[in-house]
């Protein structure tokens, strides 16, 4: 009778260590960048042994990949909830405005997200696999959901739903990079509501 209880404790301990390693990895990557971070640093930050880190993650790249997947899972899936049964029966201007606002909130109100994005962009030249992992994970979540919405929305008649989705997401990403990451809001400020209103109107007003 004691074995199942012990098994649950072991699984719980492993999950706790995984969380500690991920938290330690995020801390070190944000503080030192990808190239300068070592698994030794991660182990110290996570307060576990180096052997424990390697028992959970094969190498630094696999740890960084796990952080990317977690970021996408936690943040990007929430941008567009295709499980909401009413979404296809909601006016697209409401759906798209909510999507844009959620994306911009994530980019403007979560410093950790922006800093992590800076690492991916900054290290993409030397470590292109990091950027590829990020893009491929995003493609399978929020972008895929938005593209599917454009294909199925009964209120819109789009000639190319995929290209429209890329234009929509691209405008939001450009806004975040220029305004928030490159400090453009101090040089070429743009109100987010102005951007969202224009973007939504371009899609909705011309394709109904």
Map the helices and strands.
Layout: H1 2-36, H2 39-46, H3 50-56, H4 60-76, H5 92-109, H6 111-123, H7 128-152, H8 161-181, H9 192-204
Helix pairs in contact: 1-2, 1-4, 1-6, 2-3, 4-7, 5-8, 5-9, 7-8, 8-9
Q: Would you kindly provide a written description of the structure presented here, covering whatever features stand out?
A:
With 208 residues, the protein is mainly α. The chain has two domains: 1-57, Homeodomain-like (Arc Repressor Mutant, subunit A, Orthogonal Bundle), CATH 1.10.10.60; 68-204, Tetracycline Repressor, domain 2 (Orthogonal Bundle). 75% of the residues lie in helices and 0% in strands. The chain is built from nine helices and no strands. It has helices at 2-36, 39-46, 50-56, 60-76, 92-109, 111-123, 128-152, 161-181, 192-204. α1 (2-36) crosses α2, α1 crosses α6 (111-123) and α2 (39-46) crosses α3. The protein is elongated. Mean pLDDT is 86; it is low at 1-12.
Number of helical segments with 4 or more residues: 9
- Output mean pLDDT: 86
CATH superfamily of the largest domain: Tetracycline Repressor, domain 2
Radius of gyration: 20 Å
**Helix-strand sequence:** HHHHHHHHH
Helix content: over 70%
Class inferred from helices and paired strands = mainly alpha
β-strand amount: under 5%
Which fold name corresponds to the CATH topology of the largest domain?
Tetracycline Repressor, domain 2
Query: Main sheet?
Result: none
Number of domains: 2
Count of β-strands: 0
The CATH architecture of the largest domain is Orthogonal Bundle
Shape: elongated
| Separation of the first and last Cα atoms | 64 Å
CATH class of the largest domain, named Mainly Alpha
Low-confidence stretches: 1-12
């Amino acid at each position: 009778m004691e074995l199942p209880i012990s098994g649950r404790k072991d699984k719980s301990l492993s999950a706790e260590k995984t969380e500690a390693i991920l938290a330690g990895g995020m801390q070190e990557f944000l503080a030192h960048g990808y190239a300068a971070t070592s698994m030794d640093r991660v182990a110290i930050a996570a307060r576990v042994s180096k052997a424990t880190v390697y028992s959970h993650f094969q190498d630094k790249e696999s740890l960084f990949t796990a952080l990317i997947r977690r970021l996408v899972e936690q943040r990007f899936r929430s941008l567009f909830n295709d499980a909401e049964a009413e979404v296809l029966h909601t006016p697209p201007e409401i759906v798209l405005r909510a999507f844009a606002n959620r994306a911009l909130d994530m980019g403007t109100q979560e410093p950790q997200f922006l800093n992590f994005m800076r690492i991916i962009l900054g290290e993409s030249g030397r470590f292109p696999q990091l950027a590829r992992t990020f893009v491929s994970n995003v493609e399978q979540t929020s972008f895929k959901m938005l593209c599917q919405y454009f294909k199925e929305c009964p209120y819109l008649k789009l000639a190319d739903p995929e290209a429209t989705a890329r234009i929509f997401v691209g405008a939001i990403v450009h806004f975040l990079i220029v305004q928030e990451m490159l400090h453009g809001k101090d040089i070429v400020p743009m109100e987010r509501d102005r951007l969202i209103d224009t973007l939504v109107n371009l899609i909705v007003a011309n394709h109904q």
